[in-house]
Amino acid sequence: MFAVTVCKRKSKKKSLKALSLYTDALRSYSGLAQEYIHKVIDHAECYAKGHVHTNGLENFWSLLKRGIKGTYVSIEPFHLFRYLDEQSFRFNERKDNDAGRFVKVVAGILGKGLRYAKLIGKMEGDGLPQKAESWWTETWLLNHLGFETD
């Protein structure tokens, strides 16, 4: 596991060098020191050395796995990014109370409508039903006259 800390920087040219990567002692991460500021924590020795630890990331993964196995139970791979977005929001706002999180969610959805046609992938029109007839009229015409309305 690894954690990334983005340092404040003045130059965009040094944007990659300004990243601090905190990883565990997995050998796959050994080449990162050439590109980034790389600090390693060996969990066989200790779990933290000052600010160098992976506890926050391990906490996030623990909460994500618990949510998938316990709350959502069965998820479709197609929707995985949505579950990750929700868990990221929950994790990033964990120090706020329920009312504060609710206000942020509502502020994020105001003015954003989702039409049924967009939801199912049919993008023609505005997503509203194109027929002016009621369900009763359509059913009556089909049952009594034998034709459908278009």
Q: Mean of the pLDDT scores?
A: 76
Give helix % range: 25-40%
Distance between the termini: 57 Å
Q: From the alpha-carbon coordinates, what is the Rg to the nearest angstrom?
A: 26 Å
Sketch the major β-sheet.
Answer: 3 strands, mixed
Number of strands: 5
- Spatially, the strands of the biggest sheet line up as 1-2-3
How much of the residues is beta strand, in percent? 5-15%
The H-and-E topology, N to C, reads as: EEEEEHHHHH
Given the C-alpha coordinates, what overall shape results?
elongated
Overall SS class: alpha+beta
**SS summary, helix count:** 5
Low-confidence stretches: 6-12
SSE order and pairing:
Layout: E1 2-6, E2 19-24, E3 37-41, E4 48-49, E5 52-53, H1 55-72, H2 80-92, H3 98-109, H4 116-120, H5 135-145
Parallel strand pairs: 2-3
Antiparallel strand pairs: 1-2, 4-5
Helix pairs in contact: 1-2
